Amino acid sequence: MTETAEQPDVPFRREIRSFVRREGRMTDAQKRALDDLWPQYGVEMPAAPLDLTALFGRDAPRVFEIGFGMGDYLHSRVVAEPQRDFFGVEVHRPGVGRLLHRVASAGARNLRVACDDAVVLLRDGIPDAALDEIVIQFPDPWHKARHNKRRLIQPAFAALAVRKLKPDGLLSLATDWAPYAEHMLDVLNAEPGLRNLSETGTYVPRPATRLKTKFEARGERLGHEVFDLAFARR
């Protein structure tokens, strides 16, 4: 993918990626879903901020998920919350195809997806103060110290999230890697535009909207505690 040219008012250039493209095997159903449903649900990297009202055909609360994996969580919310519009970004094409197949089978129309760098799309393709919620579930923790710089949650990203959220908009995160949870807390508590919704300034109970995925269940079997964080834009 060609990087979008940096604009004077953006907080950072997207040079160090927080993800690795792992295509994996795509089933025939996933491939058909991508081929047949992309014109209806898919969004290519825009050259300018999107008109989200025109994109969804209405003005409704908007949720943006970064890295939806196989789409279980996003599918559950799309179907359960038809009054909201959801925009998911994922580079794993089999996961995108699976989500499109399931959402179309449910007859839902309140979803748009992109298969690209979510941070670049958020920065360049989403208008400021346009989102009611940004969701980040189990991002790659980049365990090795020399790779920590690749972690998605960094001060520049926190500032970007503040720009894109509406006042009182929610930044919702989860991780099963304790060192990354502590890193998230340090970064997000230090961002003046965010307010930690935890009464203790640390973690919050698991939100009712957060479906327990197979990934999380596997982590629990391995003894991994899950940490939920919730911040609101001031």
Characteristics:
234 residues; 18% strand; disordered N terminus; methyltransferase; tRNA_methyltr_TrmB_bact; S-adenosyl-L-methionine; tRNA (guanine(46)-N7)-methyltransferase activity
Tell me, briefly, the overall form: globular
CATH fold group: Rossmann fold
CATH architectural name: 3-Layer(aba) Sandwich
Overall strand count: 7
Order of helices and strands: HHEHEHEHEHEHEHE
CATH class: Alpha Beta
Provide a count of the helices: 8
Helix fraction, binned, reads 25-40%
Q: How do the strands line up in the largest sheet?
A: 3-2-1-4-5-7-6
Task: Give an account of the 3D structure.
The protein is an alpha/beta fold and 234 residues long. It is 34% helix and 18% strand. It has 8 helices and 7 strands. Strand 1, helix 3 and strand 2 form a beta-alpha-beta unit. Helix 1 (28-41) crosses helix 4. It is globular, with a radius of gyration of 17 Å. The relative contact order is 0.15. The model is unreliable at 1-12 (pLDDT under 50).
Write the layout of secondary structure elements.
Blueprint: H1 28-41, H2 52-56, E1 62-66, H3 72-80, E2 85-89, H4 93-105, E3 111-114, H5 118-125, E4 131-137, H6 155-164, E5 165-175, H7 178-189, E6 194-196, H8 214-221, E7 227-233
Parallel strand pairs: 1-2, 1-4, 2-3, 4-5
Antiparallel strand pairs: 5-7, 6-7
Helix pairs in contact: 1-4
